């Protein structure tokens, strides 16, 4: 098994940049078609099978890159914040709707500090100011939705993926890369422009039960995009209306391509270049994780919750770096 995986990784690392970009467009199209036909099933499959392998390999790659921060142990603070999210989600319920979003926002602000500031004194001062700012900030439903729901989910898998792609394309100045970046936006728009009533289907009880932890994302996205519904019942809207299917197609596509984009760029990212023992442990943990989802999907969600959130927190500095690179590239255009 290890030999086969190693051979596969060797093959995909021989692709040229243009081949990777065109392959990514193909992956987008395939993901979009599957998302149109079986949106809920595609999401559940991608999240359970592709998700854990993505978390494990990306965290290992980020560790080799020192998490794109200026301090050796900056990742520890982000990991602690992730643990707090887990703690207030499953062990000690959060006292307010703003508690977990505030922890996530603090992770973003710390990431900004870790990327741009090296002096420890300035870091401490800015970290304290960020903490005070969050404490005194007035929060409401929009704060909960954008920071607590959208940021670690759809913004992470779609917006940050798009930014990561654009950052790489700008550095390499690849026409094929620009086409792939544009294709991602156009395909995402297609879910809202193309009416496909004939592809609606009955969502099974298993799917409804397995997806229950995510349904808030769907309801808030339906509100954000202003999609019309004939009922006010959230469960019916998500699982039995055209608006619900439109949003689910977009979510399923975003998550699936987010994972596939990572694996398709092995030759560029080089995440596979780790000791054999590390790769073997990663594969064993991945198989174990998928097994948990097979036994009970909700068990898998809860067991992998910390790992999934950890990769989001540890990726924040990379997201900051990507937007920094894009901003620097766009400055000359304004002169």
Task: Report on this structure.
This protein has 335 residues and is mostly helical. It has one domain (2-320). It has helices at 2-12, 17-37, 39-64, 74-91, 99-116, 120-136, 141-172, 175-193, 205-211, 215-224, 234-240, 242-264, 266-269, 276-295, 297-303, 305-330. Helix 4 (74-91) packs antiparallel against helix 5 (99-116) and helix 11 crosses helix 12 (242-264). The chain is globular and about 55 Å long. The termini are far apart. Residues 1-12 have low confidence and may be disordered.
Keywords:
0% strand; 335 residues; single chain; mainly alpha; 79% helix; globular
Main sheet summary: none
Helix content: over 70%
Tell me the radius of gyration. 20 Å
Sequence of secondary-structure elements: HHHHHHHHHHHHHHHH
Question: How many structural domains?
Answer: 1
| Poorly predicted segments | 1-12
Assembly type of the chains comes to single chain
Shape: globular
Instruction: Determine the strand fraction and express it as a percent band.
Output: under 5%
Give the total of beta strands. Answer: 0
State mean pLDDT (0 to 100 scale).
89
Q: Give the class from helix and strand content and strand pairing.
A: mainly alpha
End-to-end CA span? 55 Å
The tally of helices reads 16
